[in-house]
UniProtKB/TrEMBL annotation:
Presence of keyword Oxidoreductase: no
InterPro entries assigned: SCL35B1-4/HUT1 (IPR013657)
Membrane topology per record: Multi-pass membrane protein
Record family assignment: Belongs to the nucleotide-sugar transporter family. UDP-galactose:UMP antiporter (TC 2.A.7.11) subfamily.
Alphabetically ordered keywords of this record: Antiport, Membrane, Transmembrane, Transmembrane helix, Transport
Localization of this protein: Membrane
Pfam families the record matches: UAA
Protein name as annotated: UDP-galactose/UDP-glucose transporter 2-like
């Protein structure tokens, strides 16, 4: 049981610390990483005028794989067949690509406000995903609805005041929210239907979330070629990075 509850962060063991300290360290690291990522994305899109969301996601996928490799994860640690991650990979890459692409039309606060409301579509979709069929009490639906209502009011105000606000961005981020509704529930369904995914640590392997990130990235990267080729973004983005500003690559990837 002690081995199953072990926690590490960047190779440093947190197991000897109280649970509240582990929680505080991990959540603080998450928010700090998300903050740095947001600053980088805002800088790349608004200051460097790099508006290629699909290519951004494509490069970011390789950053993920590199960081996973540094963690020591290999294909020997995989407990689920790769086909398990096909649907998950498709919606993951679609969500990331549309989210990043929307920054060319929305400012970062507006994008984050939209993404924060994904709780409502996730709750609704959770009632239909095989293996979950979740039901939530009425007060949780009311809370989610009020959150969405607050977003609508914020959006109406932002549309009047922001110089970087477009309906194209609204449509893109709305598409990302629809895919997020599938994403969270598909992830939970994989953990639910195969408990070994979360118990990999018992066999001295990396945890299931590492497997899920690795497999969904490997399977999902080829999906990105379709929108990149159809929109011509692949060649335009490659030219922008190789000729205009190669340093753009250093802005990619979440910590």
């Amino acid at each position: 049981m002690k081995e199953e509850q072990s926690r590490t962060l960047f190779g440093i063991s947190l197991s000897d610390r109280p649970t509240w300290q582990q929680f505080l360290i991990c959540t603080s690291g998450f928010f700090f990483g998300y903050l740095v990522n947001g600053v980088c994305e805002e800088y790349v899109y608004n200051r460097l005028q790099f508006s290629f969301g699909w290519y951004f996601t494509f490069i970011q996928g390789f950053v993920y794989l590199f960081l996973i490799y540094l963690q020591g994860f290999t294909t020997k640690h995989i407990v689920n067949p790769m086909r398990t991650y096909v649907k998950l990979s498709a919606v993951l890459m679609g969500s990331h690509g549309l989210t990043k692409g929307s920054l060319a039309y929305l400012n970062y606060p507006a994008q984050i406000m939209f993404k924060s409301t994904k709780v409502l579509p996730v709750m609704i979709m959770g009632a239909f995903i095989p293996g979950l069929r979740r039901k939530y009490p009425v007060h949780e639906y009311i809370s989610a609805f009020l959150l969405v209502l607050g977003l609508i009011l914020f959006t109406l105000a932002d549309a009047q005041m922001s110089p970087n606000f477009s309906m194209i961005g609204i449509l893109m981020i709305s598409g990302a929210l629809i895919m997020d509704a599938f994403l969270g529930n598909l992830q939970e369904a994989i953990f639910t239907m195969n408990p070994e995914t979360t118990q990999a640590r018992k066999h001295k392997k990396k945890n299931g979330s590492m497997e899920m990130l690795f497999c969904s990235t490997v399977v999902g990267l080829p999906f990105l070629f379709v929108p990149m080729v159809l929109t011509g973004e692949l060649f335009r983005a490659w030219t922008a990075c190789s000729q205009v500003s190669p340093n753009l690559y250093f802005g990619f990837g979440k910590p």
